[in-house]
Every structure is written in C-alpha cells, then in structure tokens.
Amino acid sequence: MSTARDEILDRIRAATGTATAGRAATPAQVDAAYAALPRTYRRAHHDPASTDIVALLAERAADYRAVVERVPATDLPAAVARALAGVPTFLVPDGLPPQWLADSDRIVRDDPPLSARELDAVAGVITGCAVAIAETGTIILDHGPGQGRRALTLVPDFHLVVVRAEQVAADLPDALARLDPARPHTLISGPSATSDIELIRVEGVHGPRNLHILISG
Amino acid sequence: MTAGTGLTGRVIEPGAAGVAAETGSMPTYLGMPAFPEAAKAAVADSQLRRNLTHATTAIRTKRAKAVAELDDWEELRQAAKAIKDHTLANLDTYLLQLEENVTKAGGHVHWARDAAEANAIVARLVKEAGADSAVKVKSMATQETGLNEALAADGIRAIETDLAELIVQLGEDRPSHILVPAIHKNRAEIGDLFRRTMPGAPPDLPDDPQRLAAAARSHLRNEFLNAKVGISGANFAIAGTGSLVVVESEGNGRMCLTLPDTLISVVGVEKVLPSWQDLEVFLALLPRSSTAERMNPYTTIWTGVTPGDGPNNFHLVLLDNGRTATLADQTGRQALRCIRCSACLNVCPVYERTGGHAYGSPYPGPIGAILSPQLRGITSAIDASLPFASSLCGACYEVCPVAINIPEVLVELRARAAENPNHRIERTVFHLSAYVLSSPRRLAAAQRAASVGRHFIGRSGRIRRLPPPLSAWTDTRDAPAPPPESFRAWWSRTRGSAE
User: Fold this and answer.
1) Which domains does chain A have, with CATH numbers?
2) Complex ipTM
C-alpha cells in the first residue's frame, strides 16, 4: 500500500516529467539551476555611503506610528528611564546590558519562566534587537541574549526596543544575511495593527499597542 | 509526543483504498449556483458594492504608491517568478529537503493527499495534545480543506483569531477576500455584529475601527492565554533550513505560533522556497502587493522547536489537494506561483462589482477563477463558469507580484470547460455580460433611487432610516445624504446620454 508521502511524490514526478522546463535530473543539477536563477534586483535601495540609513530607519519606523528617538550612547540610560517612566512594571530579559537600566525598581524577571497569564499582568518589556532594516523601518529580534523568548515581547502592551546604530542594515538582503536561520525570529514593523475593517490601517490589536524605539549611537 | 525523541518525523497515514482522486476537494459552498446567478444577487446589493468599491479603490492607490517606491520592482517580480518556477519544476527534491530539515530541527512532517486526509491528521493531533479547542491563525489552506467544520464534527472548537475571520465566524458568514475576508462588511455592520454576538462587548461599543479592534483584543485575550494548540498555515517554507514563515498584522499570528504547547501548520506543497535568501525577494513583494505597506507589522519565522521558546511540539502537514493535478498542466501550473497577496482582487472590475461570495470558493477574484477549477477539477456548474468570470482586461496580470498570466490561464480553462457538453457555455457568457458588465446601469438606477429618498433625511443632514429595500443605506452610521442629483444623472441631463 502506498503512503500519502510516496503517492504525492509520485504525482509530482509524473506531473513534472521530462516536458517541464527547468526540471533537473540530479540534486547537483537542481543546485546548479538554482544558482543560475536571475537576480537582477538591487541588493539595497539605499547606499549607506550617501544616505543616512539610521535616519531612514527612524523615519520609516515612525511612519508606522512607532515612537522613535535617536540618542547618543551616553544618554541611553536617561532615555530608557524617560521612556519607561509611565510603565508600572516591565520585563527585563537575561543578557540586557545592565548599564541601560541605571535606575529602576519596577523590574520583573522571567526567572523562573512566567506563565502566559503572569506575563499578561506585566505592563511592558525592554529589549535589544538583532538587526534593523532601514528601507522598511523593521526591527528584527532573534530572541538571543537581551531579547528574551518570543512571548516576552508579545504579551505585554508596551515594547521598548534599543537599536544600536551598527545593527542597522540598509535593506532586506543585508539584514537577512546577518541572521542565523536556526533561531526563531520576529520581524516588527510598528505596533500591532489591522487593516481588516474597510482596509484602513488602525494600530492596536493583539501585539503590543505601543512600540517605542531608541536608536543609540 | 515530544520533540527530539528519535521519531522519523513522518507519520504514515492509511491509504484511501488504493485510488485517490487526482484533483482535490474544497467546500463548493452548499447550494452554490454558477457564477452568473450568484453574481446577479451580489450586483443587486448596493451596500455590498459600495463597501467593495470603497475598500478596493483605497488599496489600489496605496499599492501603486508602495510599488513605485522600488525602481527594481520588475526585476524582483521576475526573480520571484523564476524562483517559483524552478521550485515547482523540482518540487519533489525541495519537499524532501524541507521534510529532512524540519525533522532535524525537532518537528514532525505529515503528508496529506486531500482535504479529508489533512483534516483527519489535524483532528488526531489536537486530541493527542489533550485539547478540545485550538486557536487559529487565518489560513487559506485550512479554509480550502474546510478544517473548522471537520474539527467541529469531531467535537473540537476552532477559534478564528484574525479580526476579519472573527467577523466572519461571529456572523456565521463566509469570507469574501483573501486578505480581508470581511471586506464586504463596513464598520457599522461590524459594530452591529459585535454588539449582538461578541460575549462581553459593551452595548455602547462605537463603530470606530480602533474601538472595534480593541473589543476583539479583549475578547480573544483569554483564548490565547489558555490555548493548548495553535493551528496555522504558512506563507513560505524554506527547504534549505526547514524554516516556516507567517506574515501578519495583528499579532494574533504571533500569539497562536508562540503561546500554545503544540503547533500544527497546514501548508500547501507549493509554498516551499529553496533557500533563506529567497525571503529577500518575497518579503519585498508580498507586503507591498497585499496591504500596500513597506513591511507588514509582524512576521514570525521558526525552525522546528526551540527549547524554552514557543511550542514544544511542531507538526507540519504538507497538503496536495489538487496541487499536483494543477502542476501537470503546462499552462495552468503557473497558478501555483500564487503567494495569496490579493492584489488581483483589488484591481478586478468583475470582483469589485460582485464581491467574493459569487466565486463559490475560498479563493475569490481572478486568482480564484483559475485556481478553484484547477484544484477541484471542472466538474460542477460553478467551476465551469469561473473561467468566464472575467473581461480579460489583464489588470490582474499586471499587478501580480509573481507574474501569473491569469488571462492566459482563463482562456485555456474556457476551452477546457467548453469541451464539457454538460455546461451551457453560451448561456453562462450571456448571463455574465447581462448582470456583471451592465452594472453601470444598475448603479445609475440605485443612485436615482437614493436621490428620491432624500426626504427621509433627518435635520442633521444625515439619513436616519429608510424603508426596505433602501434600508440597506441606513445600516451605515456615517452615510452622508446623497446629493439631489448624481453626477451620472447630471451628465445625462446636461450632456445628452450618460451611458
């Protein structure tokens, strides 16, 4: 008796027989055909030599109605304190540089790991990020040190994220190349939003309704 | 069952007694008439048409602007087409690679020949997880398989968490657009629905989209926090790394993909991409084509399971359901390049007038007109009529980010439908022309009726209540009073003929 897997694979082989353009006979030929695909699009739509891509990131992220501030590295602790001033409690993931938090007694730690319901009782979260994309105004988390597991930046309603200037990539190709596919990733472009009513974008559904971005350096 | 226990990651399903249908099955909505009959009712619904025109006009303009920002759009489009064609031509190789890499990363891979097989796998997995409900991310694949109904029959409650899907589910309605399933409803209709049917919705909930979204947030929060099982589709599956990608806006996707202990993703076999690098093409094309944004608010990418972060059990169900039959057709196979952006719906003059329900399938609009008859086979009146639900104007081909030549496939499918003597094609075409393409005349009639109705206007200058059938007007709270004379009528009076 053939399995679903065998049968689907057989159907594919029958459907793509010799008459199909681009059908390769061996795995090596498949790889060679893939490598030869046309990629004439731009590697970046902005040249970091002539464009201030950090300013572009700030502008494009603000387009999504995120709050964006550029701060000198030395002013970061003060800027963090200001951004968190109205947030009653906030999560601090392991690995966040301690100097970012000069003064705060409202810190919640995910240790031992909090349940989803416990996370729901926390007002905010502060994290770093892995990479940012200037072209699209996107922050990418790979949930490594200083970023926390995915639920930490999802359940609380306020997300403060710190981007260091050297983490800013001009465009998608460069940003994706900096990431390790084995890790989980979250790409964030503005606060939670929906266009489901009359195709009009409104902010604030299930993810954090407030996204505050500090670009340092 | 937990990850990393040395299972092969492949579950062998009992065969369907030797012979499986080559084409797939999906709900041809119960009692669905052929497209012309269904379109007739839709075109006569002035509120529906008004909602559709409003939404599609806005998104068309925004999309054009978002696309114009990238001066290499055509190069991106051609790269996407080439990547998809290459992948489809070597689909067996890439699916095996995907299976191997998902398994290596701690996930389990299942294969489903058709809708029934996919639904049975999902139902079994939900039960194995000890759950009687599951939170769902909007997914075309599970719409196609009728998963929610199948789960309900098995005593499992599927909770739609996308705002538009929630609107459809609360209204016991059907989706009418790929991206915005409730596009046929305006804010006032949605407000009414929430006040009537959403547990805990305040009786004075206003018809403001922001407040409606906030109501959905609080309504669903408990479901997310309690969920044991999440069910999703995927926009892309990366063969070379075993990564799955879900593109969304609201964060309901992140909730379903992150909080439950078990995640089940039902993914059509055509969603596979060779490598991680290909995302640089598709993440540039999809959001701009779909919601006209540089990037959608949230994208989640995961590879198998990550200890301490997200679900401990991940199941990938690879779905055929007519895709391999479509792949066998040299002209029609290009429909499998589709990334479900819905740009073709938003530019289609036929869709704008009929809405999505008339297409009788989860896939409406131009892409639905070529996808549904191929996935299901041309065996019903609706599928035989779908290839004729087009004026062949070509706008769909022009906006398609993966360059699917929809008019070419339509013509091919028309020829095939015409070979079937059971379907009276001339009648189909005649009805189509009469009901769909005559809509300017119907619009004029509706506008004249609206002007006559001006004496129902309240002191505020806004319409309060009209008798049926014009009561459709008063379903919307912010409908301005129509002018004493429509542009069409004015043109006709001052310049001779309006038509």
Assistant:
1) 4-35 (no CATH), 53-216 (3.40.50.10420)
2) 0.97
Q: Is B291 within 8 Å of chain A by CB?
A: yes
> Hey, of A43, A199, A201, A213, which one would you mutate to test binding to chain B, going by the most B CBs within 10 A of its CB?
A199
Nearest CA among B69, B452, B302 for reference residue A151: B302
Per DSSP (E only), the strands in B59-101 are none
Cα B424 from chain centroid (whole Å): 29
Residues of chain B under the 50 pLDDT cut: 1-21, 426, 430, 433, 443-479, 498-499
Chain B residues in contact with A139 (beta carbon < 8 A): none
The CATH architecture to which B80-319 belongs is: 3-Layer(aba) Sandwich (3.40)
Closest CA to B42 of B423, B375, B356: B356
Alpha-carbon distance B22 to A2, whole Å? 15
Span A83-114, pLDDT tens digits = 999 999 999 999 999 999 976 679 999 999 99
Residues in CB range of B63: below 8 A, 6 or more apart: B288, B289, B292, B343, B346, B399
The residue whose two tokens read 């009639």 is B445
Give B 105-164 residues with CB within 8 A of chain A.
105, 110-113, 117, 161-164
Amino acid identity for residue B39 in this structure: A
pTM of this structure: 0.86
Numbered ranges of CATH 3.40.50.10420 in chain B: 80-319
pLDDT in tens, B133-156: 999 999 999 999 999 999 999 999
Do the Cβ atoms of B282 and B339 come closer than 8 Å?
Answer: yes
Contact A186, B299 (CB under 8 A): yes
By the CB < 8 Å criterion, does B305 face chain A? Answer: no
Q: Output the CA–CA distances (angstroms, integers) from residue B375 to A14, A87, B323, B326, B388, in the order listed.
A: 17, 52, 6, 6, 17
State how far the alpha carbon of B90 is from the alpha carbons of A29, A33, B22, B371, in Å.
10, 10, 19, 21
